[in-house]
Amino acid sequence: MKENIIGRQLEIDRLERYIASKKSEFVAIYGRRRVGKTFLVKELLEERMTFRITGKENASTKDQLENFFFAFNKYSHSQQVPKTWTQAFEMLSLLLEQAQDVDTKIIFIDELPWFDTYGSKFISALEHFWNDWAAYRNDIKLIVCGSATTWMLNNIINSRGGLHNRATHTMLLEPFSLNETEQFFKAFDFPYERQEILECYMAVGGVAYYLSLFEREKSVAQNLESLCFTRGGELVDEFQKIFRSLFKKADNHIAVISALQNKGMGLTRQEIIKATNLTNNGNMTSLLRELEECSFLRSYTPFQKSKKDKMYQLIDPFTLFYFHFMHNNNTFLKGYWTNMVATSKYASWCGYAFEIVCLNHLEQIVKALGIDGTISTICSWSYTPPKQLRDTNDDDLLQGAQIDLLIDRSDKTITVCEIKYSQNEYEITKGYNAHMTQRLRTFKKVTKTRKSVVPTFITPNGLLNNIYSRQIARTVTGDDLFVSL
10 Å Cβ neighbour count for 118? Predict the structure, then answer.
């Protein structure tokens, strides 16, 4: 039921609008494994469905057709299992035609890619069902879901065959925001305050299934210990499962992710190819698009660069967490995670992980800064002194510099964001203030920008009040990241 759904208001509104339309609709919902696609559709529409079926993983065509037979008999009666998918969809058409007392016929086919077994001709049968029958009516609402992103993109959303441009609507279901994650924990009476919720998000992101595994009686650290660092823990093998379920040739996707996992600002396409030894062709284009569609990567064009310099940046919290702490860690030592919290490795991860959280909440940052509607580009910038400048007397140009997040605004202003993780108020020291000032001078000289440059801090608990923090015009806090949009 709708009241059981946490967040997802935009998606709920869209689905209700499609259901209420005066024409037949073909809605394709996709997104990464465990994000809550099936739950959303079932909770919202279960009581209104005319027919529902879920594909069986790694099943033969014969088994899938038998699966259809059993699903069909929940709504009508059939004496025999269909021999082909064409026959199965003909049975479905007759069932829908006979449902004359229902004004809107909602058909939900979950895990659609699993039906497309070798030689099954499932796709051609689905094409015929939609193109030759359903599309000519005004009462059919076909909703399909699938976690196998490669298949969904190639066969439904970007299909060049009979389903080309047939999906009337596509919906990418993304992980929860911090606000939705907080709603989730509150709905199940977790005592977590925002600092703990933030630390949870830094580790596993907003994937609904991962959050559902947390136990209310345990702290975030204790839950992570049991889920990720205990033999048999439910997330111990999750990394491999994610990619094997999403992508047909997952090894290449994993290779790209591996190359990016310690590159904070990301890599260009050419740098990725060099790091992975993959071929620079259309498959690479599709691979990067698929990773971006599933919220593992974001792409952006660096400040004052062209599209050919586009960077790809890792933004999935669980992937980063996996590579920092779980990859090749098979010892399962008791207390591993609780002891890790006191190490420099943990502190280093916190800095990077909090940056990823910020990249997943750029709209909240923009809103907190009060600069909605003025945005031109959100990107990063870096500078390495060229060899021919080594004889210059300008110390600023001799210094390399990097800005992880800047907002190039259309109102002749550039907001430079300093992202710093701290469990307490962050202290800007004299040394760091000097470093920040020098970096801004380098930025202005190298870019020759005529825009005003405004430094801003993003830090969970705000800035410690001192002479340096009072020079900062605006600070974005953790509470700002929890705002609902």
Answer: 6
